Amino acid sequence: MHPSIAATLLVALNPLPLLAFPTLSSRGVEKRPSAVSAKLAWDALLGKRGPATASVALDGPPCDMSLAKMPSAPSPLPPPSAGLTLSHVVVGRGTQNYTCASASDAPKAAGALASLYDASCIAASYPSLLAAMPPVALDNSLPKPVSTAKASKNGLTPALAGTHYFTNLTTPFFDMDTALHAYGRGGFAKVAGTPAPEGAPVGPKGRGNGSVPWLKLGSVSADEGWQEVYRVNTAGGQPPSSCEGMPKTFTVEYAAEYWMWKRA
Length: 264
What we know:
Pfam family, one: DUF3455
Number of strands: 10
Radius of gyration: 18 Å
InterPro entries: DUF3455
Shape: globular
Strand order of the largest sheet: 3-4-5-6-7-8-9-10
Distance between the termini: 10 Å
Helix content: 10-25%
Protein name: Malate dehydrogenase
Number of helices: 5
Keywords: Signal
């Protein structure tokens, strides 16, 4: 597999965050991360530095993705197909997009737009920390893109892995070929879905209409890249039930984990 950008989390400028990150208990079970550690990890992926923030180290050894275990959906989704192996795990942060034809209609989905942040090594080493990151990402404002030049000047490179968007109303597309790496790209179609579990975040700061469903997507591309993508641990993104009082087009902020599977 390609080396993950988020190869190692290093504490910058202040040793205090080291205490906040998950550790293993004497029985080898990962301790529950604090909200502070999840926020530190999210800031690290964004390339932020501060008195109590972490930075992301580049060019580390590839993570052992066999250690990463994808969360189980409340109503199980079909498992990854035989012969596939986990390639990347990313946190998506952006918007679900909707349209309204009239006030009496229900909003209709019109795609999504999100930035993707490489969290592969967090998935392999700190699964409970990863699970805490979509809600934290949702409760913080949409990230502003950081130029490679600016990041390099600050001694940081954010783990921005690519972009997720739709090429039409039914084809989600993932583009993770950038100036820094060539992880892959491709279009997908929905294979199966299940509602987000009870208690999933409803929206930023607890204001919203619920979390979008968990999904399994299958490739519609002819290349040998990713074959299946799962959207899990969703946070926010659901529209109101009615178009009453809504504009013809609007967006709802969301975050989610995307697990990307390729041929072995």
